[in-house]
Amino acid sequence: MKASPPFRTGYAAVVGKPNVGKSTLVNALLGQKIAAVSPRPQTTRRRQLGILTLPNAQIIFVDTPGIHEPVHKLGEFMNSETAATLEDADIIVWVVDVSSSPTAEDELAAGKLTAIEHLPPVILALNKADLTGKEALVQNGKKYQALDPGVGTILPLSAVSGFNQEKLLAMLIESMPEGAPFFDEDQVTDFYEREIAADLIREAALHHLRDEIPHAVAVRIDEFKERDKENAYIAATLMVDKESHKGIIIGKGGAMLKKIGTTARLEIERMSGRKVFLELRVKVNKNWRNDANALKWLGYNQNNGF
């Protein structure tokens, strides 16, 4: 009788510049949405675990904020979240947009990787490969590889279409150490529902607001009550740093805030499987992104790894 393969468990850090498809890829690999996504850069602000339990392995994806040049304390926090993750991972999935050439932020991400003294194995994931011509795929792939010659594996894939995602999973399982699972098989993330709800509200705001506002918006859940198994009440505050932004978010007659609330409520209901009554308010806190107390109030606390 042939022996079963050993069970493998480990952490796969998913890193790269902002808005390159990291959260979209994690959601796709898990087969369900746990991470907020939007067309805006820096949608992800905290590291989040996505836990995939298979018959022969448990892969713990660590979705990280995009690596960028910080201009405030919030940006410093986001980069520190990613740095701590890189040091603790068993393998790193470095996601890039192969449909275009490397940018300064890609170079910054590569620099973070090469600076790690004991660098885990790195898979260079060439995202949007399905939308890129063969010649551009080859040429841009070489440019990304040149940023970090230590990359061991290069894999063209798509976070949206599913192209080569199964191949990525096989590579990750093969690289994981043998060991028992760290989490129960029915757990898919380390975030509580209230934390995911906050991200989904901000995601809705990012989709509906103008370009100059999104980075200055944060969300705090003030109240989260499960009325019963089928209903919940959520009250949340959207924080902005300018009085003019407050007016834009509320909109004429409250129209924009209602639109944000409706979009967020539907996503939260889809995530939680229950009906939700969502109440939103808007608060101004000037320069909150450089205010340590405001960042702490919003839940952006220093993370020290897994």
Verbal overview:
This protein has 306 residues and is an alpha/beta fold. It folds into two domains: 8-175, P-loop containing nucleotide triphosphate hydrolases (Rossmann fold); 193-297, K homology (KH) domain (GMP Synthetase, Chain A, domain 3). It is 36% helix and 23% strand. It is built from nine helices and nine strands. It has helices spanning 22-30, 73-88, 104-114, 134-147, 165-175, 193-208, 243-250, 255-272, 292-297; strands at residues 8-15, 48-54, 57-63, 91-97, 122-127, 153-156, 218-228, 231-240, 275-284. β2 and β3 (57-63) form a beta hairpin. It is globular. The mean pLDDT is 87.
Please describe the structure with a list of short key phrases separated by commas or semicolons:
GMP Synthetase, Chain A, domain 3; 23% strand; three-stranded mixed sheet; globular; 2 domains; alpha/beta; 9 strands
Write the layout of secondary structure elements.
Blueprint: E1 8-15, H1 22-30, E2 48-54, E3 57-63, H2 73-88, E4 91-97, H3 104-114, E5 122-127, H4 134-147, E6 153-156, H5 165-175, H6 193-208, E7 218-228, E8 231-240, H7 243-250, H8 255-272, E9 275-284, H9 292-297
Parallel strand pairs: 1-3, 1-4, 4-5, 5-6, 8-9
Antiparallel strand pairs: 2-3, 7-8
Helix pairs in contact: 6-8
